[in-house]
Structures are given as structure tokens and as C-alpha cells.
Design goal:
about 120 residues; alpha+beta; 3-stranded antiparallel β-sheet; 6 strands; about 25% strand
Length: about 120
């Protein structure tokens, strides 16, 4: 099973480049179907939650986390992150050959960055 905390840490590192916020992230034990609940909570007590299937591939889990955690930042902090360099557009996650990248949703192929390496 992939290390969920490490994968979530990659995503949060990328989003923290632009926002000083540091939400807490907690993980439940797997439920009866095997899914893990992930709860992202800011300092005010607001939270966003979602589930992941830890039996999925690491790329699939990282993609789901990149998608869901960046959405949580929109809910918690009213900002879309990470931002495509030189624009105000938030990047979208995409799986390419078993790896997950941030990419510009408006200009496919012009900019991408592996999740966890955004600067």
C-alpha cells in the first residue's frame, strides 16, 4: 500500500509555495470496503473530506489527492493552486505514463511539472 501521508505531503508542498496556510490532514483506518477517509482542516475549524482507495496504483492515488486537495484549498482559502507560471490559472493534475503532473488546463503540452516538484 502506498504511503498516503507522503503522497499528500507532495501535493501540500506544491500548494504551500503560494499560500502560507498549513492545514492539518488526518487519515482514517480503512472502512469495510477498504477506503481511507482523508480530512483536511484549516486553523478556523473548516474542513473538507474525501476518500481514496489505498489498493489503487500510486499514480491513481496521487492524482486523486492532487485533484481533491487542490479543490479543498479553493474551499478553505478561496484560491486555486498551484498556479501555472506566468498566469493566474490554477494547474490541473494529469496522469502521464504512471506519473502525475500539474499541467496548464488551457494550453495542453506547453507547461507541466511533476506533482511534488512545483516551485
Amino acid at each position: 500500500m502506498p504511503n498516503l501521508k507522503e503522497l499528500a505531503g507532495r501535493v501540500v508542498r506544491d500548494l504551500s509555495v503560494s499560500v502560507e496556510a498549513a492545514p492539518s490532514i488526518t487519515f482514517s483506518d480503512p472502512d469495510k470496503e477498504g477506503y481511507v477517509k482523508i480530512l483536511i482542516q484549516d486553523h478556523s475549524g473548516m474542513f473538507v473530506g474525501f476518500t481514496v482507495d489505498p489498493s489503487a496504483s500510486e499514480a491513481e492515488i496521487l492524482y486523486e489527492m492532487a485533484y481533491r486537495i487542490s479543490d479543498a484549498y479553493v474551499e478553505l482559502y478561496a484560491v486555486g493552486l498551484p498556479v501555472v507560471p506566468g498566469t493566474e490559472r490554477p494547474a490541473n493534475p494529469k496522469i502521464v505514463a504512471h506519473e502525475v503532473f500539474w499541467e496548464d488546463p488551457n494550453e495542453s503540452g506547453t507547461w507541466s511539472c511533476p506533482v511534488g516538484s512545483y516551485k
